[in-house]
Amino acid sequence: MTTPIIAILRGLTPPEALPVAEALVEAGIDRIEVPLNSPEPLESIRLMVQALGGRAMIGAGTVLSTQEVQAVKDAGGRLIVSPNADPTVIRETRRLGLESWPGVFTATECFAALAAGASGLKLFPADQAGTVALKALRAVLPREAPVYAVGGVGPANFADWLRAGAQGFGIGSALYKPGDSAEAVGTRAREMVAALKAAT
User: Fold this and answer.
1) 3-class SS at 22?
2) Any idea which residues carry the catalytic annotation?
3) What pTM did the predictor assign?
4) What values do phi and psi take at 67, rounded to 5?
5) Contacts of 141 by beta carbon, 8 Å cutoff, 6+ apart
6) Contact 186/27 with Cβ under 8 angstroms?
7) Most-buried pick from 31, 36, 45, 67 (CB within 10 A)?
8) Please, which residues have CB within 8 angstroms of residue 54's CB and are 6 or more apart in sequence?
9) Could you give the 3-state DSSP secondary structure of residue 78?
10) Rounded CA separation 48/69 (Å)
11) Minimal CA–CA distance to 3: which of 156, 193, 138?
12) What digits encode the pLDDT tens for the residues 8-47?
């Protein structure tokens, strides 16, 4: 992975999928999720995997069931991101050989997710938890467990989150909103990558 950012492309449509994904990868963001409440998300994932699967880890967000995990795998996706920490979904994701990034907010959820096999933790909504909460969680979580802050994070507070113990970020509307051109997404992605490098 070139940059510890997961791009969240909520609302993406299949015709936009490839140009937007190519713009992100060229800018240095090679983890991409299409939330399953987007239009035809599995088709977007399939198209991106066919073209960029060797250069990027592509998958789905808002994954809530084991059936959805299987559908994402069938489309070629390798990344499963959820807003919640469902041990059944996490275990099935890992059984299928995919990465699992469940949403967590409390120490109990963090440890339950890790016990189920989570690849990493998505602190969500991060802006509600705050950096103080993350710092407290990092004091007790295993050092090797990556935590990404998602929700209300961006260049203005990258440095604060990194100091609190975040290893990376999930970025949604600050990178992509429905209807944005690939060129606009690429410009924002380059700015985001530069800001994160400056903060580290």
Assistant:
1) helix
2) 33, 122
3) 0.96
4) -65, -40
5) 107, 110, 111, 114, 121, 147
6) yes
7) 45
8) none
9) coil
10) 17
11) 193
12) 999 999 999 999 999 999 999 999 999 999 999 999 999 9
Question: Of 64, 72, 133, which Cα lies nearest the Cα of 97?
Answer: 72
Work out the end-to-end distance of the chain between its first and last CA atoms, rounded to an integer number of angstroms: 16
SS3 content of the chain, % helix, strand, coil (to 5): 45, 15, 35
Q: How many CB atoms lie within 10 A of CB 144?
A: 6
Instruction: Give the SS3 label for residue 151.
Output: coil
For the chain, domains (ranges, CATH) are 5-199 (3.20.20.70)
- Cβ-proximal residues to 122 (8 Å cutoff; 6+ apart), any chain: 81, 82, 83, 101, 102, 103, 104, 147, 148, 150, 170
Query: Residues 167-199: pLDDT tens digits?
Result: 999 999 999 999 999 999 999 999 999 999 999
Classify 8 as helix, strand or coil: strand
- Alpha-carbon distance of 81 to 5, in angstroms, equals 13
Shortest CA distance to 52 belongs to which of 13, 97, 21, 6? 21
Report the alpha-carbon distance of residue 21 to residue 43 in Å, rounded. Answer: 13
What tens digit of pLDDT does each residue of 94-137 get? 999 999 999 999 999 999 999 999 999 999 999 999 999 999 99
